[in-house]
Design goal:
749 residues, alpha+beta, six-stranded mixed beta sheet, Hypothetical protein af1432, 6 domains, Ubiquitin-like (UB roll), Beta Polymerase, domain 2
Length: 749
């Protein structure tokens, strides 16, 4: 029996497949029977699923497949798109897909499928692992990322149905990962639409402002562009055949980057208007350039020859900016028809499977950047680091630098001479001792510029190698991974010793201690496994050579310790040592710690590390066999709510602080503040004025212009701590304080 939801699905909705399928059947390049089979499977698998918009879920994979079809992708791509969510969201597994549709389709579906339930603690880790998985699959078959781009494009087109926080999250990821990949692959329409949609959700005010200005420009410019196009056509068409001249207005994102990121005025943007000239041959390109330069005044420094020096994404064209006779600047792009297809569709325009050819072709060499990125990614120590590397390497702003032999190296804008050395070869970078730019010696942090000739000075002397300081200078993931790889191989023993010391120091600083060495090793091994290391020495080595910053892992380490290890520190229940309930005993004992214990005489007393009680807080004691008595805060998670009815109630004794004894206790406090000049100095000055002893202090920037200062201090009472907090909150920029005297930090803001 068909339920109501299925009835609505089958009868009331047009999922768009029939119209799309009619075009498929007309194209002999596609196997329409297999595509229909994939559609039927996807339709059945998703029959009870709906998108947030309320539409049947099948509309999404159909829309993705149609986008791929318009790009001219092959049969396996279309099938993979129709099935791309089946394994992730339905009962069908990958083996079934492989059996029904073959290994190629299974590879594509698996590459696009997100990771399942994996033991990761943060959303960032999950995201990073999914991106890592996608790039590894992309390295095997680039069609994976093309499907993923189209998937992301349709999701962005329908993002209005998602909650605001999800809109921002997806838009940022799109802007940092997917749009740059589309740029690298040369798929311009997808790149520009992804960018514009992302800006729409990330900064709607700026988007509307730009859209308004563009609308005004468009209204003013339609006549202008029509006139310019006619002038150029009248000059070029008599001397060249098959010429096409078109015009356009710049995309929203292109203007956003220049106005809101680079700080330019709207009127300073010279390429809002653009004219494109498409001709038959490369010679015609340069002839057309000469004609337009005769017609209009070229602006100095605005000519770029991407024909003789193509971009890494295969893009070729001549770019020049000229002034019209009315003084209006506009850009002219000149290219051949083959260059145009590549510029519009990138790798999709050259897809070898679509053309029915096997083996390697020129595309393989043009995708070398993917292989390099994965190679560098394999050398990263955390998924988050891989994502950071990918974001850096995908930067769309590039410079082109020459070797002394005339070879061209494309590097991200801001790259240094060290990045250049490692771009040549890892051996060159490892032996580097200096560099010359245009014949002059420069510092190693010198940032190269387009057109410069860079000579790397090397030395074969024994003991020469990169410096750890270089990791702070380089900007490319390639250079960073090669430097770290050198330290991995050459300084492993040293790295292990240094890393172990750093880990132990950081754990002590955060009051994570183990009396049992075996428990300590188990704990660190667990942390190493979460960072994808097979053994503890590899983890120590990574920390030692700078591959992992242990301080960045501490929030997760603290959480792991509090949830799974702190509870284990208390001894398990054993047979009772007394026959009467000590809670009811009238005897009292006063220890030098300032704690008065009822019912116990001359007992060794220590403070529980799980809650770190301080004078003024309500406390209770727990009798440990052979080790004395441990004092807990009454609201500690390790203290039962009902002491009289808990297992072994005789081991819990009443206790309180002696008001006549002053006791110093340690407490850790986190101070959140706006990251302004001198804020840490003001915090330490406040502590000094209050005569507070600081045992340790660590200050670091956090997100969105804020900073965090963590201090371990000595206090003598809860009132003392409260007064310190009040003083801290009076400091300009301090907006939040957190105390770590209990398993769950108390909010003191």
């Amino acid at each position: 029996m068909v339920n109501e939801e299925q009835s609505v699905y089958t009868d009331d909705y047009d999922d768009g497949f029939n119209k799309f399928f009619e075009d498929i059947k007309k194209n002999p390049q596609y196997d329409s029977e297999v595509i229909k089979k994939a559609y039927d499977l996807a339709r059945d698998a998703h029959k009870n699923q709906r998108r947030r918009s309320g539409e049947p879920y099948i509309m999404h994979p159909v829309a993705v497949a149609e986008i791929l079809y318009k790009l001219g992708m092959d049969n396996e791509c279309i099938v993979g798109a129709l099935l791309h969510d089946v394994v992730e969201d339905t009962q069908y597994d990958l083996e079934y897909i492989r059996k029904e549709f073959g290994d190629e389709v299974a590879l594509l579906v698996d590459g696009v499928t997100k990771l399942g339930q994996i033991p990761l603690s943060t959303r960032e880790e999950v995201q990073a692992e999914n991106i890592r998985k996608m790039f590894i699959a992309m390295n095997e078959d680039v069609r994976v990322i093309i499907i993923k781009l189209c998937d992301r494009l349709h999701n962005m087109r329908t993002l209005q149905h998602m909650p605001p926080y999800k809109q921002r999250e997806k838009s940022l990821e799109t802007l940092e990962i997917y749009a740059p990949i589309a740029h690298r692959l040369g798929i311009r329409p997808i790149k520009e639409e992804l960018e514009d949609l992302a800006i729409y959700y990330l900064d709607p005010i700026a988007y509307k402002e730009i859209e308004k200005n563009l609308s005004m420009k468009k209204e003013q410019g339609e006549k202008f562009l029509a006139d310019i196009t006619k002038q150029i056509s009248d000059k070029i068409t008599p001397v060249m055949k098959h010429v096409q001249i078109t015009s356009r207005v710049k995309s929203v994102h292109g203007i956003f980057r220049k106005v809101y990121i680079k700080g330019k005025d709207f009127e300073q943007i010279f390429d809002i208007y653009a004219v494109r000239i498409i001709v038959d041959t490369m010679i015609d390109c340069y002839n057309a350039l000469g004609i337009v330069h005769d017609m209009f005044k070229p602006l100095p420094g605005r000519f770029k020859d991407y024909i003789s020096m193509p971009k890494p994404n295969m893009y070729q064209s001549l770019h020049t900016t000229v002034l019209s006779d009315k003084g209006v600047p506009f850009e002219i792009q000149i290219r051949t028809w083959d260059m145009h297809r590549t510029a519009e569709y990138g790798i999709a325009a050259h897809w070898k499977y679509k053309l029915g050819r096997g083996g390697k072709d020129s595309i393989d060499s043009r995708l070398e950047w993917i292989h390099r990125m994965i190679e560098h990614g394999d050398e990263t120590d955390t998924p988050e680091e891989l994502v950071t590397t990918i974001k850096g390497d995908l930067s769309s702003d590039e410079v082109y630098v020459f070797t002394p032999r005339g070879d061209v190296k494309a590097l991200p804008k801001g790259a240094t001479v060290i990045d250049f050395a490692y771009a040549i070869h890892s051996a060159v970078g490892n032996k580097m001792v200096g560099a010359k730019v245009n014949g002059k010696i420069v510092h190693l942090d010198y940032k190269v510029k387009t057109g410069e000739i860079v000579e790397v000075l090397t030395s074969n002397a024994q003991g020469k190698g990169p410096s750890r300081d270089w990791l702070k200078i380089v900007t490319t993931g390639e250079a960073r991974s090669k430097i770290r790889s050198w330290f991995k191989k050459e300084k492993r023993d040293e790295n292990i010793v240094q890393g172990k010391a750093e880990v132990e120091r950081e754990l002590r600083r955060n009051f994570i201690r183990f009396e049992d060495s075996e428990e300590y090793i188990k704990f660190v091994t667990r942390i190493a496994e979460r960072q994808h290391f097979t053994n503890i020495d590899d983890f120590y080595a990574a920390v030692g050579y700078g591959g992992i910053q242990i301080s960045r892992l501490m929030p997760g380490i603290k959480d792991e310790f509090n949830r799974n290890w702190r509870v284990q520190k208390e001894e398990p229940p054993k047979p009772a040592v007394a026959t009467t309930n000590t809670l009811d005993k009238p005897r009292t004992s006063k220890d030098s710690s300032g704690v008065v214990v009822e019912g116990i005489d001359n007992c060794l007393i220590k403070m529980a590390r799980c809650c770190s009680p301080i004078p003024g807080e309500e406390i209770v004691g727990f009798i440990n066999r052979g080790t004395g008595l441990t004092i807990h805060r009454k609201d500690c998670v390790n203290v039962p709510d009902d002491l009289k009815n808990c297992p072994e109630p005789e081991r819990w004794v009443n206790a309180h602080w002696d008001n006549n004894v002053k006791v110093d206790a340690r407490s850790t406090i986190d101070v959140y503040a706006i990251d302004r000049d001198g804020v840490v100095l003001d915090i330490t000055a406040c502590m000094a004025t209050a005569h507070v002893k600081i045992h340790s202090i660590n200050a670091r920037p956090i997100s969105e212009g804020n900073c965090l200062t963590t201090m371990t201090i000595t206090v003598n009472s809860k009132e003392h701590l409260d007064s310190i907090e009040k003083s801290l909150r009076k400091i300009e920029g301090v907006y939040h304080c957190l105390l770590y005297t209990s398993p769950s930090p108390r909010d003191c803001s």
